[in-house]
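Memo subject: From amino acid sequence to discrete backbone structure tokens
Action wanted: Derive the backbone structure tokens from the amino acid sequence.
How to read it: Take the token row as a discrete description of the fold.
Attached in line: The record itself begins immediately under this heading.
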Amino acid sequence: SMLLEDGPRARGAVTSAAAMGANGGANGGTNGVSHEDKSLLNGGASLDEVKLEQLASPIIPRSPQDYYKGSADVTTAGNLSKTKRYVERERLTPDANGIVLALVGLPARGKSFISRKLEGFLEWRGLPTRVFNVGKYRREAVAPQESGRSNFFDAENKAALAAREAAALAALDDALAFLSRGGKVAILDATNSTMARRKLIADQVLAYGKPFVVVFVEAICDDGEILEANMLGKVQNSPDFWHLTLDDALSDLKARIGKYEDVYETVKDSEGPYIKVFDLSSKIMASHCYGRLANCILPFMMAIHVGARPIWLVRAGTGDADPQTPGESDRLSKLSNAGRSFALSLSEFVHSRSERYWSTTGKKKEPTCVLTSTLPRAVASVSYTTIHYEQTSALNPIDKGTMGAGWWDVECHGNAPPWEEVKKRHPEFYSSWQSDPFKKRFPGGESYMDLVKRLESVLIEVEMSTRPVLIVSHITVLQLLVAYFRGTPVEEAWKTSIPRDTVMEVSPTSGGGFVWEEHPLVPVPLRSHDYGMDIEPESPKGKRRVSCSPEEVSGHEPVDDNREREAGEMKRLREQ
């Protein structure tokens, strides 16, 4: 390496040396470099001490486009990889043995909402997760009639401060013990409003002696409407306010918030990894979040919100193929007449409930978000509901590999997979599968855990949606979605019954959960032009075709002679 003077004179020396070297040294042994230039290049050293081949290296031909495409030079371990920030990234990128997500924020900012949503999602993903609410520890140590009052949160109240710190450390001890027993994510739900408190948490985790990582999740909310709704929900549900009138409770809560505002310090870069959530997901900011944090927690947190909308889950309509017929696959089965009747009933249900939702909210009506598997029966099930839908293979049934051909391709006669038939036909596999039904794969196929990973993007899209959602899929997929929305153990989803011709409706709650309802659909009699009606999967041009040819009626005769005319009109309307 060489030290070069700055300025035109020094730059000219370099250019001259390089050019003369490339020309083969036409002016003699010094290659045309003057003594003055040699001094500039060599800091006054003799020419013999300079490796002239470095100066005379050929100029690499470049085109202007090379610059815009980016350097093609192979990255090497240099000084940039030794910076403090990069070293920190290397430390945090591998998935930690355990993560402590420590919430930060003033009261009524949505911390508990975020905690519950994260717990449900991560548990569903197969990551043992638990919320440790510091307020609960505080109430167990000091009665809420005392510890719930605003003066208990005054920084000058030393006895109360000590009690609150003891509650926080007790919750943290339990969180670390949970991670030590095999837990993956411990969520510390508390205000953690000062740098001193957060440092105490980080120091305690470090002193625990295990490779656990602390990530602070700060909830920041300045939206007046959200704050009012959060405060109202808190005083109506928290044990701290049960014995107060609504007005007194709100007044006391606002006084508590004021006590916290006096000492509040936002999370800074120097404190380590963090995620900041603004106004319950209007904006997300993250620092030093890699590995599992980046690929699942962050996308989920960007999706969740407090908006209300119905979500409908339903099995695809009955097909015209018999799943118990040897050698016959029902994967390409079209709807039977019973399936078409179901599709009509589903259409009436969705339109009716959608109208009720939009009229209740007073918002401008938007199309329902409709997601189906790629199987023809699922697509045809929404043919009377909408012409705007999205097919996704993520909603296709579990891949059973070499099993199920001719007796369990997709459809099941009952409301759950035919496990008894599996046991009868494949006793060795069934015995092994029973040891861990969630993780055990079908031979050459998927496990329920694999299916969860496949469904993650769909679930995030559903959480992100601000309008009604309709999902049409199959038993194994719906078993897992039901586990998420009902908050039941995902490891036991394989037992869940999924009724046919029934809409399972879930509605988000302000607390982060869901309300569950089931609506059995009443069959709608088929009209003449409904016989043989199927929507085929998307053509190469993205258009859908309504099929009503006599060959596809499957032996059912229309009740009048106007079938072709009515089918043509239906096709025209649907294509519009």
User: Anything to note?
Assistant: The longest helix spans residues 337-361.
